Amino acid sequence: MRLVGVLMGVTAENPVTEVRLAAFRDGLANLGWSEGRNVSIEYRWAGADVERLKSTAADLAALAPEVIVSGGTEATAALKGVTQTLPIVFVHVADPVSGGLVQSLTRVGGNITGFTAHESLIGGKWLQLLKEIAPRVNHVLVLAGENPTWRMHAPTIQSAFNVQLTITHLHSATAIEPSR
User: Fold this and answer.
1) Is residue 180 situated within a structural domain?
2) Which of 37, 66, 113, 127 has its CA 20 to 30 A from that of 57?
């Protein structure tokens, strides 16, 4: 039986977790892998807590799975910090090159590869679309959560058009006051 590790930078209760895991299991099944029959999967969730991600990544790597699937930039960075030999396949990573996870998109240069969610220039495209809808916009508020993806987009958003950019960090959706 093959052992696969999964480290997610979200909690097990996250609404998208089960959808993502179902897609993962379906993909494995399409390739002939069935959980409990010919593959064992060790799942770990750590949320956005960086210290917990690091310890959970170390625990998972200690099991020596044949491959680890990581979900999110922080989870992948935590795994990179604990192993340079176990193969890591990431999903939903913002910018693996500027995040130091891989050398380049064409030559990863290590034990980490995967699928990126965005590339850094997409931020400029978002603003371009906004300016097409509302051409006189000159001040843009970016609501940034815990995910560090916003750092990648901020320079391209600001340089794409002549706008003032304000970044506000939110720790939860409840921090946004409803308009009256």
Assistant:
1) no
2) 37
